[in-house]
Design a protein that fits this description.
27% helix, binds shikimate-3-phosphate, alpha+beta, 12 helices, single chain
């Protein structure tokens, strides 16, 4: 999000039953990658359905600064034409690359420039400069790249950062110490301009949009299951990527907000069309179904190579469950709104394996727990678990919640406020533009009660 400016508080009030049919915007992960891969391909890539949100627009600006020609067409449909420069042919940017709020943009682009022989400078907003970058600079240093990072109060390896790309990159075989598609993707992108084979090993499957995109652009990675069950993903460097048009599917992470809002309002009946159903992203749907959510997956089909489906959701009586830790990677961005659902459920919802939530746009475990307690929710937070004890009735609400530059915290509390006895106010709705600029309009159309608060 842009630095400074005036906060925009917003109030969520209890709504009647929600109804209608809706479609959420394009997938954020795939939108970033469309711009990156289109810029690396030879020829013109036409993209439609691109998410036109702040995070993705920052990636677009950065790819232009690195030499790609990108035309963003007026009008609806998220249409973009990209004339790529070819692998290894990016040029030194003459400005600082400001990645705003986006960890994905920062980490993927640092990987991309690491194996180009020029210097570049990265920064971000007040949230991004606190987030750990050593998870990408460590493996990229092994490939020969050098970094100068800030030693922030949370420890070394923070933005702003100088990247001194290498012209003699060395391929690596690297086992991910954290389950992170961003780190996996950063290394694979660095490997694209590295001679030989670069391999990333992941113990836990994380979203595979980078692998899918490589295949779509004609250089499928080699994917092997190792004896210990881990997956090795290998790219052979210095190949030619062929331009390939992309239709970006809609974002299951955004769909989770109307989904939960409908579940927690009795009598609701909402259909969300053409939701991206990549199985590395749909953990929250399974979890909400296990909690008793009346969710029907309809018209499953493949659109432009990605599985999509329409999701019909009805107001439901939810029950607490234990959410397996192994599922965390497939729903990592959906925990904040799942916490809102758990707060309305009857019984205990126990969610282990949440340590990665502490290094998202905010410490999502602490930020959500603080806001939920202020709304009267009974919970226990540990270093990597959250236990929410629900009475079966929505919590009291009646609090003003700090969203600390985190779009998903903002949207989660606006969803919870549709059910609470007293309204919930968020201190600033502006971060929502990071990933879901039409959130308020879309939710209001379904019957949500959202009002801009006069400060
Ligand atoms: C993303 C990966 C996830 C997710 C983020 C988008 C991506 O982060 O939280 O919103 O597009 O690769 P990690 O891979 O670091 O868990």
């Amino acid at each position: 999000m842009a630095h400074g400016g005036t906060p925009l508080p917003m109030i969520a009030r209890r709504s009647d039953a929600l109804s209608g049919t809706t479609r959420v915007p394009g997938d954020k992960s795939i939108s970033h990658r469309s711009l990156i891969f289109g810029s690396l391909a030879v020829g013109r890539t036409e993209v439609s359905g691109l998410l036109e949100a702040e995070d993705v627009l920052n990636t677009m600006a950065a790819m232009r600064a690195l030499g790609a020609t990108i035309t963003h067409h007026d009008g609806p449909g998220g249409r973009v034409s990209i004339d790529g420069v070819g692998v290894g042919a990016l040029t030194e940017p003459d400005c600082v690359l400001d990645m705003g709020n986006s960890g994905t943009a920062a980490r993927l682009l640092v990987g991309l420039v690491a194996t180009h022989p020029f210097n570049s400078f990265f920064t971000g907003d007040a949230s991004l400069v606190k987030r750990p970058m050593a998870r990408v600079t460590d493996p990229l240093s092994e490939m020969g790249c050098a970094f100068l990072t800030r030693a922030g109060e949370m420890g070394a390896g923070r933005l702003p950062m100088m990247v001194q790309g290498t012209d003699t990159p060395v391929p690596i075989r690297y086992r991910l110490p954290v389950a992170s598609a961003q780190v996996k993707s950063a290394i694979l992108l660095a490997g694209l301009n590295t001679p030989g084979e670069t391999t990333v090993i992941e113990d836990v499957p994380t979203r595979d949009h980078t692998e899918n995109m490589l295949a779509h652009f004609g250089v499928p990675p080699r994917i092997e299951t190792l004896e210990d069950g881990a997956t090795a993903i290998t790219v052979t460097g210095q190949q030619r990527l062929k331009a390939a048009d992309i239709i970006v599917p809609t974002d299951p992470s955004s769909a989770a907000f109307p989904l939960v809002a409908a579940l927690i309002r009795p009598g609701s009946d909402v259909t969300i069309e053409a939701v991206g159903m990549n199985d590395r992203r749909t953990g929250v749907i399974l979890t909400l179904q296990e909690m008793g959510g009346d969710i029907t997956i309809m018209n499953e089909r493949v659109e432009a190579g990605e599985p999509v489906a329409d999701i019909r959701v009805k107001g439901s009586v939810l029950e607490g469950i234990e959410v397996p830790a192994e599922r965390a990677a497939s729903m990592i961005d959906e925990y904040p709104v799942l916490f809102a659902a758990a707060a309305c459920a009857k019984g205990t919802t126990y969610m282990p394996g949440l340590h990665e939530l502490r290094v998202k746009e905010s410490d999502r475990l602490a930020t959500m727990a603080r806001g939920l307690v202020a709304c009267g929710v009974d919970l226990t937070e540990t270093e990597d678990t959250l236990t929410i004890r629900g009475s079966g009735e929505p919590p009291r609400g009646g609090a003003t919640v700090e969203t600390v530059l985190d779009h998903r915290i903002a949207m989660s509390f606006l969803v919870l406020g549709q059910a609470t006895a007293e309204p919930i106010t968020i201190d600033d709705a502006r971060p929502i533009a990071t990933s879901f600029p039409i959130f308020t309009k879309l939710m209001e159309k379904l019957g949500c009660q959202l009002v801009r608060s006069p400060v």
